[in-house]
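Amino Acid Chain and Its Fold in Token Form
===========================================
Purpose: to set a sequence beside its fold so the mapping can be learned.
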Amino acid sequence: MSVQAAYDKAKAEGRAALVGYLPAGFPSYEGAIEAARTMVEAGCDVIEIGLPYSDPMMDGPTIQDAVHQALVGGVRVADVFRTVEAVAATGVPTLVMTYWNPVDHYGVEAFARDLRSAGGTGLITPDLTPEEAGPWLEAADAHDLDKVFLVALSSTDERIEKITQACRGFVYAASLMGVTGARSALDTGAPRLVERTRESIVRQGLDLPIGLGLGVGNGAQAAEVAGFADGVIVGSAFIRRILDAPDAAAGLAGVRALTAELAEGVRKAK
């Protein structure tokens, strides 16, 4: 199933899609796979696998802690691809979210080839702009991979238009200014950002869903976001359940419970 198909299926069911994020190698190589599979079983429609990077400048402390653990544990790009392969085997579309430097270092064409070979559906690149993405756009098209770029509260209408033109799969709307992390309340500019992005998509005659992330941490917030966005993206809250758990079994139970709460939330939107 493609990412677009997952969003379309959720829409046909009268709800938003639930997208879960977890870094490869956290809490361990096998642990990440098990946690991601648990997220799928409990209701996630799409999974994002993070590629651990030594300088996660846009990530908050929770994701930084998880990424640090993964790197200390020795996770490598090959492990990321193996994680994608294991999660994609569930039938749920699986993307990689990564800073651009590791892709560039690995080789853009080789990365696209190996991601597709692993069953991955695309790449989310938070620090890559469309203007600098030429090699990636070509490689993604050659290997039929989705290209997901971010729009932010600070994006101008002109900027949003350029970003949506370059996207395939969905558009990632970042609802917060600053680094990632669950919040007690969502930024009040989030609905307007999604509205502006949707207006740009319609003007261009495109067919792109909009997923909103950065800050969602519970079912009530998921329901709030599902009221105006096509997808609800959750990352730090899943990681926190694992970090705070006394053991692996408790961590998985926490992930399952949170996924169920979020899945119920995206179905409660009015």
